[in-house]
Specification:
11-stranded mixed sheet; 3-stranded antiparallel sheet; about 260 residues
């Protein structure tokens, strides 16, 4: 097993963007730091990912005004993309029906920033464990990595550890973890977080945050023994970056797939 490159489509106000994670605020739009705003619609990226048969990618709706763009992306690559942002028990099946391979949930599981296990069970029963991804994006604090919700603005009552991940893993098929403190900075991944996720999680994990070169993909592969996959955003040339070529990420996946074939 080897780590794979996982593509993304981050939507803000209906546009594909790359945003520095810690700058997204509901009350102060002036703090927003955007690395890239695409002239292409979300469906363009979905078609690109479909063309190259990339699996496990995600569409994230960062706030309101993104549902139409997300729906168009899913229609362009039905069954090929996960979708997250505002997912609840009431709309999860609708997004599956629109073509999402899986739904990604965070904030709805944390009413008043406190984890509600009953909500997780309810959602897993509604869509099925195999269709559910739990987003445990987090910020680093003295006690460890604290799960952050509401577009990473609000810290919850959960600090990641082996026991908690093992419990949640009974009810979902994957974890998605944005390291919010390094998201969009292109200064390198949070190595300790990647290693911890690999050690603690009994199910696949996709990590995002800070990747700045193709070497980071190899590093994640080594640190996790292939159990953690990597999303590369702002550093990628298709998102205006200069540090990582999309074609090299595709080549990495193809090479590792060949290695794994009997």
């Amino acid at each position: 097993m080897h780590s794979q490159f996982r593509p993304c489509i981050d939507l803000h106000n209906g546009q594909v963007k790359q945003i520095v994670g810690g700058t997204l605020h509901d009350t102060d739009a002036g703090q927003l730091h955007t690395n890239f705003v695409s002239a292409e619609p979300a469906a363009y990226y979905a078609r690109l990912y479909r063309e190259h048969q990339l699996q496990g990618g995600h569409v994230i709706m960062l706030g309101p005004g993104n549902q139409q763009a997300a729906a168009e992306a899913l229609a362009a690559y039905p069954g090929g993309l996960q979708v997250g942002g505002g997912i609840t028990v009431d709309n999860a099946c609708e997004w599956i029906g629109r073509g999402a391979s899986k739904v990604i949930v965070t904030s709805w599981l944390f009413p008043d920033a406190r984890f509600d296990r009953a909500r997780l069970l309810q959602l897993a029963e509604r869509v099925g464990r195999d269709r559910l991804v739990v987003d445990l994006s987090c910020r680093r604090r003295d006690a460890g990595w604290v799960v952050a919700m509401n577009r990473w603005q609000t810290l919850t009552d959960v600090t990641l550890d082996r026991e908690w991940l093992a419990e949640i893993a009974h009810h979902c098929s994957e974890f998605l973890v944005h390291a919010a403190d390094v998201e969009g900075l292109c200064r390198g991944i949070d190595r300790k977080l990647v290693a911890a996720l690999a050690e603690w999680s009994p199910i696949p994990v996709t990590y995002a945050g800070g990747a700045s070169s193709l070497d980071d993909l190899a590093l994640v592969d080594r640190l996790s023994a292939g159990s953690v996959h990597l999303t590369i955003g702002s550093a990628l040339d298709i998102f205006g970056g200069s540090q990582v070529k999309f074609s090299d990420c595709i080549a990495w996946n193809r090479r590792e797939e060949k290695v794994e074939q009997p």
